[in-house]
Amino acid sequence: MGARVGLALTFGATPVATVWPPNAVLLASLLVAPTSVWWILLLAALPVHLVVELSGGVPAPMALSWFVSNGLEALLGAALVRHFLPGRPRLDTVRAFGVFVIGATFLATCLTSFLDAALVAWNGWGESPYWTVWRIRFLSNVLATQTIVPIVLAIDGRLLATIRIAPARRQLEAVALGAALLLVCLVTFWLPEGVRHGGPALLYAPIPLLLWAAVRFDLLGISLCLGAVTIMAISGAVRGAGPFATLDAAESTLSLQLFLFLTGVPLSLLATTTEERRRAERKAAESERLLSLTIKTANIGIWTADLETGLFGADEVLTGMIGEPTAHADSYNALLDHTLVGRRALPGERTSGSANGEAFFPDHELELQHPDGTFCWIITRGTLLRSPDGNPFRLMGIAMDVSERKRIERTLREHDERMSLVATTADIGFWSVELATREAWMSDHCYAMLGIDPGTPAISALEYFLPRSTIGETIARIEQQFGRHGTADDESCIKRPDGTTRWIASSARLERSLAGHPIRIIGVSRDVTHQRQSEREAAERRLALAHLSRVATVGELTAAIVHEVGQPLGAILLNAQVAQRMVTASEIDVTELQSVVDDLVRDAKRAGGVIGPLRDLLRRNESAREALDLRAVVQDALELARSELTKQRIEVSVNMPDEKSLVMANRAQLQQVLLNLILNARDAINSASPERRQLLVTVTKGVDSVVSVGVADSGGGFAREHLGHVFEPFFTSKSNGLGLGLSVSRSIMLDHGGDLRAENVEGGALLQVILPESSGRPAPRPAAAERLGVTPLPLTQPPPGA
Known about the structure:
The chain is of the alpha+beta class and 802 residues long.
């Protein structure tokens, strides 16, 4: 269709059309299509071009020659535009329009016109000379490119939506513009010379309407209007009408082309400039609205000070902070003085500023009075504007109310001071380490606790509170070290640079982000040296008390011990005297003497068997623990108390398992506990009738890998109101007792990971020593005797085999 339009708008004696649309159509197709399909478009245009040209009477060689020059023009123009405007070009900026005019309209058309004119001369087509063909071809293609391509590039998917949502008055305006332009073009270009009046001056009639289109309807509007004017003007001249009909064909063609081109390019540039400015104004308005919203949201006030008149201006945000400038001039003068850092800029002062005539001042904070009488903190920043000759004429700035920030800072500072006071009073230090950067921080009290210089890097000092291996580990390894709850406790003994030793207890927690990723470790550390010293002193006193308790227990057995030791010593003395007489006799009976010596050895071992356990019992070696057979320890304790129990006519029954019952304990302390229980049972049995003077000792293996020794008596048991206090220090039901035996015994058992319990049974009291087996775990303390597998025996009847 473009080729037929071009042929139809060609003067008969001219071999080249006045305007040739096919090249512009092909150029527009290449500009809107991907470069990968350009060769397809060029090949697809060939058969159409040949059909049109051949049907118009153009020889085949000439038709092929024109396809080469026309295709080369479109290809070169598209390549130049795409090089500077990647992607689908839009002629909505002055730069883009300039690239299109210079590259596609002028340069590509100019270069290919030389080839086109040469091909016309070579084929002998037409009678026009070479330069005339070049000029007409160049101007016809320039006019077509400048008229058609902007229309194609301006039409996209948004055009229909823009037209559909345009206001009705806008649509009516476009219809009115089109109708008026059509009417003016008919009068100007289609009426014969004898009918119309006004001469060449009528060429200016479409200009106001074209300006209307350029200003109101952007590039698309002016392109459509220019296209309509171009078609009306050329078709009128071809028909012999209009102002160009009086000229010959060559002059008419040249005049038409120059008129249309010189009219179209400035108007298109005006439309592009108008559209770009309108777009810039929209962006500026949007930016201004966004800036205004941001400023109001951030509670930022804007103020100005005219240095010539001394008048202040302030927006509503700033007037809400410190009041109106007329009513609170002192506040605004203070704002100005702080912005200028104590220096007022005089109207006639000349200062050196920046290249754009502005001088900026740093932020300053000041306290101003609020209209309601309260005070607020304002942070201000200003810029001094100067005229081109360097004289300052206006100061502008912003002010922001930072009273809330000041209040928060003051609150945080007071909180930090209180926390510092509490930490110092409680001897607590705080520290933290960032896992991503390995940056550490410690409070001043941590440095004082460690006795090191506060300037020491925290990451190196932190190893006293947290192992360095933890800091250097991966995140996964650190999570594993802190466990499921994300906490860890540690206590270590450190040696400070001054040579003193301190005990430091630390508690750390692994903090996580909202997404659950570990981000830092925070912790507190406390100097527990005095506490550990007190605990050690208390432990020493407790051991000394236990030793004294053992000595007192042995003191209760003094008479029995003397009796037990006296018998073997008497026998030793008697046998020694017999041996002495036998030695002085004239004849020695060796057999008899050997018997006497054997008796001496036996009695000596018997005395040693009594004294050895007593020596072990009185020795202070509470820290040594070994695997003991509980049955043997019970037998030794009963052996030590045997004489005392026999003297009191107490019947003793022992019930033990056949297999060993191994426990990890200190022999002396365990014997002390058992002797204490046996002697307490003896004292309780003394008040019983002779037929019920019974003592039952039972060794039992219970559940949870524990072993128990039950000492049950027939003394009537504990009073109900005393049962809950039997293990309290200095509590006793004896008239001559101190109340320390059971208390010390229970503390010994607890120290061994076991327990000592008391309860009433039928006919008396039961005291149970509970210990973990050497291969088991410590027994749980708050468990009942039955739960541990220990069942006390009733004492109404003597046990079997008593």
